[in-house]
Amino acid sequence: MRLFNLFCFLFLFLCSSKAVAQSTPCESLQSLHWMLGKWQSISSQQTVEENWHRVSDNTFEGVGKTTTTNSEFVESLRLVAMSQQVFYLAKIASNPLPVAFKAEVCNGEVAKFVNLQHDFPTSLHYRLESKQRLLVEVRGVDGKGFDIQFVKVD
């Protein structure tokens, strides 16, 4: 019985440690280097690209572009570390100011950015599936949205 209790304790400890590690908030861009580079998603309806580069220890800049046969949508992207927090800033031509999302989760494979005050999206969840594959889940407050499966092209 004692061995069983020890096993249960260790199991719960490891599970809680993993949960804490996965939900570590971002304080710097150090654990987000995996986002850098050119990512592309091609379907029959559209091509979506994100291209990220490092500007400094506290800033990554990116460009997001969605192209269809009839249109092109471009947004300026930025990851900024300040005051021991990380923010994802998205600027589109139709908005006078960028929209800021605060990083809630940040590690070597996952980054989740949230702004519950924004109409859509309210969260952006980046997950590195392999060195060459990146999944981005774009969601609204109701949990509805879409996924983009990127492949690294550089």
Task: Give a written overview of the molecule.
The chain is mainly beta and 154 residues long. Helix content is 14%, strand content 52%. It is built from one helix and ten strands, in the order H-E-E-E-E-E-E-E-E-E-E. It has one helix at 2-22; strands at residues 37-42, 47-56, 59-67, 72-82, 85-92, 99-106, 110-114, 123-130, 133-139, 145-152. A ten-stranded antiparallel barrel has the order 1-2-3-4-5-6-7-8-9-10. Strand 4 and strand 5 form a beta hairpin. It is globular and about 40 Å long. The relative contact order is 0.15. Mean pLDDT is 87; it is low at 1-22.
Characteristic key phrases:
single chain, 154 residues, mainly beta, ten-stranded antiparallel β-barrel, 1 helix, 14% helix, globular, disordered N terminus
Categorize the overall geometry. globular
List the secondary-structure elements in sequence, H or E: HEEEEEEEEEE
Derived from helix and strand composition plus strand pairing, the structural class reads mainly beta
Average per-residue pLDDT, rounded, comes to 87
**Percent of sequence in beta strands:** over 45%
DSSP strand count: 10
Discrete helix count:
1
| Share of helix, binned | 10-25%
Cα separation of the termini: 55 Å
> Can you tell me the residue ranges where pLDDT is under 50 for at least 5 consecutive residues?
1-22
Radius of gyration: 18 Å
Strand arrangement within the widest β-sheet reads: 1-2-3-4-5-6-7-8-9-10
Compact description:
By secondary structure, the protein is mostly beta strands. It has one helix at 2-22; strands spanning 37-42, 47-56, 59-67, 72-82, 85-92, 99-106, 110-114, 123-130, 133-139, 145-152.
